[in-house]
Amino acid sequence: MSHLKRFGRGLAAFSALAATACAAPAAELHEASPAMWKVADQDTTVYLFGTIHLLPKDTDWRSPAFDKAAASADTLVVETLIDEGNPAETVAELFKLAVGENLPPLAARVPADKRDELETAIAKSGMPPAVFDKLETWAAAFLLLGAQFKELGLDPGSGVETALRKQFEQGGKKIGQLETNAEQLGYFDTLSEDAQRKFLADILEDPAAMKAQFGGMIEAWGRGDVKAIAESFNSDLAASPELRINLLDRRNANWAKWVKSRLDQPGTVLVAVGAGHLAGDGSVVSLLKKQGVKVTRVQ
Q: Which of 11, 93, 18, 31 is nearest to 273 (CA)?
């Protein structure tokens, strides 16, 4: 599933703005136990929890160990904060970066054998084709992901971060972010045109194949199979070093630095980020260990 898998557990929050809720069967995660780690010193505890940003409606991903950790936390930290009830500010930030000048038609920016799939994806998006021609390639791909998520039966309201934000808001607890909307979008906006076009071409895939592969990814996540997640993530990025650097390596390094520095402040924090950022070599977990920070897996 290439980039679509990665965004389903990585940066899909923005694409959720273009997706509509779907009545799809919930994923059955028997004895769900998505991976979770703990970093702690005498007066600080930071839980690191790998998430899926968008899930089929009513997916049950919680466990007693996770609920205990979440209840003990006084602060939730996610990748970036989006006001899903009033997304105008985020959408404005997106289009401020997204609209380009003197761009070729979007169809000219994909291989010839992908143009039929592009036309189908645009039709499913419900947006006028002319809109996409005015967008930079990465932004057009972003908006088209909304239609792809709908094909997978994913509900923007059923993602892990959405549920956690509601929980912490209701508990009157603090909620923070690792990146601003502009910072996160900037990782895409600074990609070369070649990388952007590869990203666009890679999301134009067969819905049936995507659904099967995404289902397998959710199952691996639900059972806490970090090795499978890492292998999938690394495989997706192997052919795109630029995407790996921009969307994974730079961000993981920033986040590991944040976690380490957070130990200087007392309290208990739940950090919830895409599961791929916590799996494998170069992950936040791996980088912390290399820096001498003790990281203990607790689920």
A: 11
Q: What is d(CA 3, CA 233) in angstroms, rounded to the nearest whole number? A: 9
Contacts of 207 (CB under 8 A, 6+ apart): 148, 151, 152
Other beta carbons less than 10 A from residue 255's beta carbon: 23
**Mean pLDDT over residues 227-239, rounded?**
77
Tell me the pLDDT tens digit for each residue of 10-32: 344 444 444 333 334 445 555 68
The better pLDDT of the pair 49, 23 is held by 49
The answer to whether the CB of 263 falls within 8 A of the CB of 39 is: yes
Residue whose tokens read 């170069």? 282
Question: Can you tell me whether residue 100 is helix, strand or coil?
Answer: coil
Tell me the domain boundaries of the chain: 3-19+31-89+145-182+206-297
Compute the half-sphere exposure of residue 81: CA atoms within 13 Å on the CB side of its CA. Answer: 13
Residues 6+ positions from 5 with CB-CB distance below 8 Å: 213, 214, 217, 232, 233, 236
Q: How far is the C-alpha of 269 from the C-alpha of 27, rounded, in Å?
A: 28
What is the distance between the alpha carbons of residues 126 and 129, in angstroms, rounded to a whole number?
9
Dist. CA 183–CA 291, nearest whole Å: 25
- Length in residues, the chain: 299
Handedness of CA 79, 80, 81, 84 (dihedral sign): negative
Q: 250 with 187: CB under 8 angstroms?
A: yes
Q: What is the pLDDT of residue 236?
A: 65
For residue 274, what are its two tokens? 């895409």
pTM confidence score? 0.86
